Amino acid sequence: MKPLIELKNITYRAHDKNILSIPHFQIPEGELLGIMGPNGAGKSTLLKVMALLDSPASGEILYRGQAVPNGTPSLDLRRKFSVALQQSLLLEGTVYQNIAIGLKLRKVPKSVIKEKVNLWMEQFQISHLAKKNAHFLSGGEAQRVNLARAMIVEPEILFLDEPFSALDFPTKIKLMDDFKGIIKDSATTTVFVSHDLMEINYLTNTLAIIVNGEVKQYGPTQRVLEHPNLATSPFLNEWKKFYPMSFRHEKPLSLTR
Ligand SMILES: Nc1ncnc2c1ncn2[C@@H]1O[C@H](COP(=O)(O)OP(=O)(O)OP(=O)(O)O)[C@@H](O)[C@H]1O
């Protein structure tokens, strides 16, 4: 498949330290890519650079083969991307208003907004919360609103940075299960940063392991997890001690539905 995003010779520096060094990396359209690695490896920085939220020190980013001007991506291009972070950062107002905001900014007619917000609230099973103040939601509810808000604009690419990591385990697996169905149905190209092997194994098809700002292994998720290389095995083998079997299962072991 054609790459949606391509990175060439990307470096990122902060305080005179090299944070990222990526000679070449690409995300094909339709990919469900996981980015995993130890704390401080550069996962979030890579996501921010790919989502055009931060500029690299050097290198080139191409979107559908077109070079993106460094530092000044057009509004048009930005609007093809959605980002959801660990903190849901919901705005003052109701759940309905929070989910509607992206379409409102795009000046979509009110009747269409209503139809789409209702659809996405249904998809994320939060219709009953429509009129609730978004600042009084549980963590799981808030993350559902956050993901609905990201999906309603029908992004060409969705960037997720640890969206499930603050949730308790039953809440997490239920949301991940629902979310997987939604992503599959919409066929949205997705980049999912996580440090959790169970989340990565469950949600992604392809996996990049980052260590010290470099992509040390890339390939189909199952293959990477089952055959870590010299650079990634110290990290992956630690995880596999805690999830000795889960990387062989399609679903987390405790997910019974
Ligand atoms: N703007 C910045 N200024 C200074 N240091 C930074 C900046 N951005 C990132 N870093 C440093 O870059 C390194 C990579 O950070 P990043 O948040 O990308 O890692 P990560 O893999 O997402 O980590 P974690 O799993 O802990 O969230 C860290 O050492 C971090 O302190």
Overview of the structural elements:
- This protein has 257 residues and is of the alpha/beta class.
- 35% of the residues lie in helices and 25% in strands.
- It contains 9 helices and 10 strands.
- A hairpin with a 2-residue loop joins strand 9 and strand 10.
- 40% of the residues are buried.
- Residues 252-257 have low confidence and may be disordered.
- The chain binds adenosine-5'-triphosphate (ATP).
- Adenosine-5'-triphosphate (ATP) binds next to helix 1.
- Adenosine-5'-triphosphate binds at residues 14-15, 19, 37, 39-45, 195.
Short description:
The protein is about 35% helix and about 25% strand. By secondary structure, it is α/β, with parallel strands linked by helices. β7 (about 155-160), α6 (about 170-185) and β8 (about 190-195) form a beta-alpha-beta unit.
Task: Itemize the secondary structure elements and their pairings.
Elements (H helix, E strand, L loop, with lengths): L2 E12 L2 E12 L3 E5 L6 H8 L7 E6 L2 E2 L7 H4 L2 E5 L9 H11 L4 H14 L15 H13 L5 E5 L7 H18 L2 E5 L3 H7 L2 E6 L2 E7 H6 L6 H10 L15
Parallel strand pairs: 3-8, 3-9, 6-7, 7-8
Antiparallel strand pairs: 1-2, 1-4, 4-5, 9-10
Helix pairs in contact: 3-4, 3-5, 4-5
Bound molecules: adenosine-5'-triphosphate.
